[in-house]
Amino acid sequence: MNGAKVRTREISLAAGLLVLLVIGIAPIAWMAGSIVASAKPSDLLTLIMTARQWHLLANTLVLGLLVTAFSTLFGTALGFILAKSDIPFKQLLYSILMVPLFFPPYLLALASFYLLGRKGLVASVVGPGFGELGSSFLFSLWGNVYVLTSAYYPVTMILVYTFVKAIDSSSEEAARLLLPWRKVLARIDLPLIVPGIFLGALFTFILAISELGVPLFLRYDIFTVQVFTQFAAFYDYRTAVLFSVPLLIVIIVMLLMERYFLRGQFFTALGRRTGRQTTVPLGRLRMAVGILVLMFATIVVLLPIAALFITSGSLSSYLDAMNGSGHSIANSLTDAAVGATAITVLGFFLAYLVERSGTRRHDGVDSLLILLFAVPGTVLGIGLILLWNHAITAFLYKSLLVILFGYIAKYTVLAARVQTIAFRQVPKSYAEAARIARVRWGTEIRRIHIPTLKKALTASWLIGFIFCLRDLDTTMTVYPPGSETLPVRIYTLMANSPGPVVAALSLILVLITLAAFTATLFLFGRGFLWVHDGNS
């Protein structure tokens, strides 16, 4: 019976890995193979070495580096202040400042347009001259940097906050006997949070250069825009894929850096709990720093939401939005719920595989998950189309499944990482006791893993739901007729529909996202990743 249990476990884990390979890796491999098979080496070299490619590469790298620099600066400062200082209402501020990470970035671009555009809210108060200035700023490199920094600074903020909270306070207290707080922070805390800063900068750079919605809306030419344009406007799969080659090379180099320099740092910090936390007293600066943090939260979070609310106008805008887009809202909720469920289940098996396997298998699976998350949604979408758009698989391509495949490929890493952290806190003796008692694998999952990981499983579902709900790039590339989701609906209406209706739809998406985000915080608070410890 014990052997049968082992076989059942190995079969289920192998099946989970096979699903990841078929749904996520196969489209990328098929896309690469089809291009290599159909193109001559001279054609590839000519396309890669054109002035157009160098121009796109320069634009992409400049945008990514600027967004990374500002996001790292703001995110590091905010994460440190919120984790270590004694400013008032810091938990509330931290929750508010996390919000942009869960919004589609293009909604921040749209809200900024309603705020700073030629006919925006600021222009209506200050005058048309400011509207011209604001519009020129927004539809430029610096406008893209502003919007994407507003979207991605939470990445570094959350990581720095996590690394600061993982610092052992006893080392700080010992240093305080000899040194002032300024030197303690510089000599002890800063070296310990540097991995979090670099990890945040790395992922911010990857997210910035992979973004489609913001540069497409704000008319800034980078690789993702050209990939989507070649595919959607000219139906030129070959050129679209070739345009993505330099971008994929940059992303792979960044991921190799993460694997080599920062391997396991995030898991170590987030999986480590400390006792009493020390707080740095700011004294007379306490209120001033608190006001600065509140001003930042107002500018990047509260004002964009207020701009959408004011632009939406009366209740009739929401009724018009619901009448014209009710089907899209239903599609989004259904797709996100089903996608989150699939992601949570697959994430469980992959997390078990990552955490309970040898180092080589651990690094391999985790690297594949990170790679799929980093691949631009448009590139993944083209791969899905090339793989599944055939007569024998047309039933998949023309159904909801192709959208779900995109969600599973791109966002399973989120559930897997949450559950991997939780697995590290479950004593291995639980599983060993089950093995000694010859408990079946299914019974072990039902009676040991689900109860001890229930908070992490629920958090995985909610996070997966939020990211599936906000997805634009992959969905806009692959969705079949009649399967339009709310983000796609909003984006297609932005150019030609009345502003109040678009703003109302955007606010509906914001409210649904905030409801899921609030549920995560309400149900689990700061400790939602921690598992049952036997005393609660």
Structural account:
- The chain is mainly α and 536 residues long.
- It folds into two domains: 270 residues, MetI-like fold (Orthogonal Bundle), CATH 1.10.3720; 263 residues, MetI-like (MetI-like fold), CATH 1.10.3720.
- Helix content is 80%, strand content 0%.
- The protein is built from 26 helices and no strands.
- The C terminus is likely disordered.
Please tally the β strands and state the result: 0
Tally of DSSP helical segments = 26
Shape: globular
- Class from secondary-structure proportions: mainly alpha
Cα(first) to Cα(last) distance is 33 Å
- Relevant CATH superfamily of the largest domain: MetI-like
Q: What do we call the CATH topology of the largest domain?
A: MetI-like fold
**Parts with pLDDT < 50 across at least 5 consecutive residues:** 526-536
Q: How large a portion of the residues is in β-strands, by DSSP E?
A: under 5%
Mean pLDDT, to the nearest integer, reads 81
Radius of gyration from the alpha-carbon trace, in angstroms:
24 Å
Largest sheet: none
Number of domains: 2
CATH top-level class of the largest domain: Mainly Alpha
Key features?
536 residues; mainly alpha; MetI-like fold; 2 domains; 26 helices; 0% strand; disordered C terminus
Chart the SSEs and their pairings:
Elements: H1 2-38, H2 41-48, H3 51-84, H4 90-98, H5 105-116, H6 121-126, H7 128-138, H8 141-165, H9 169-176, H10 181-210, H11 213-217, H12 223-232, H13 237-261, H14 265-270, H15 286-312, H16 315-355, H17 359-374, H18 377-388, H19 394-397, H20 401-423, H21 428-436, H22 441-452, H23 454-470, H24 473-478, H25 486-493, H26 499-524
Helix pairs in contact: 1-16, 1-17, 1-18, 1-20, 3-4, 3-8, 3-10, 4-15, 5-7, 5-8, 5-15, 8-10, 9-10, 10-13, 12-13, 13-17, 15-26, 16-17, 16-20, 16-23, 16-25, 16-26, 17-20, 18-20, 20-23, 23-26, 25-26
